[in-house]
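Appendix B. Chain record.
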Amino acid sequence: MQACRALASAAVLAALVTAHPAFAQGYPDKPVRIIVPIGPGGSYDIVGRTVADALSKRLGQSVVVENKPGAGTVVGTQFVAREPADGYTLLVGGLSNIVFNPALYSKLGHDPMKEFTPIALVFGISYVLVGRKDLPYATLSEMLAAAKKEPGKLSMANAGVGTGQHLVAAALMNATGTKFLEIPYKGAQLAYPDILSGRVDFFIDSFPAALPHIKSGNVRAIAIAGPRRNPQTPDVPTMAEAGVKGFDIDSWMGIFAHANTPPAVLAKLRAETRAILPSLKPTLEKVGGNLIEISDAETGPFIQKEYDMWTKVIRDAGIKLD
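Structure tokens predicted for this chain:
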């Protein structure tokens, strides 16, 4: 009897193992969804729609985008975490929903670092420090010197507690020993009227969102937080070049799947997504970002390093959303 049970168990196991490659051969045989955990517009949406268009042609199957905003990026991310792990519901993931949220929320309801696995990182964008156009400071060094001389006098907008804009500003203050008067808004675009009118001194925003204001001359671009200058503003130095040594912060977004997705399906998604990435480069650069070019083997360690760094920043600053 025990031998029969053992043979039966082995047969079931063999069937499960061999089913994955067979499943992958027929995958996808119905539309694939990419969930964008914010509303239409913005960087997450750009990634979702750009990838969906190219990937649908590559897979020969519809890839549709669904926006599921709510609680920042929590609602849409949690939705994907609760869907079947079959490769038919993917997620646009980035710093906010994969890295920030576990540290910002004590009762998140899902664990992004454990429940999702990257298909590919796609879109890299820098943050840029901008100031009102009549600022008396010509450089980042002058601004930081003034902030140190009178802590809390100069004002810094952010797009809301726990947003990337808020956390990059916190990282800058921590790295430079400065203190600004922080003014939160319910979204990045709501901060600009006060910056344009001169009521607020500074704002750290994503480069694509700030670019129209920089080009119009309505704000002054002071320094880029990332590792390289942007070709659309070649005269704007990085923060490292401007004197904040080692300050190298970029935002990133990509496509993620449920961690329990069959390995053969993950392999197919990764291969097909990587094949379309070069074609996305012009679109991403046009909006002020860049194509992320790292291997599958480098992606996991990169995300873990980002998680470790930002968890420390958030905890050191005492930032919580619940």
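Further analysis of this model is presented in Appendix C.
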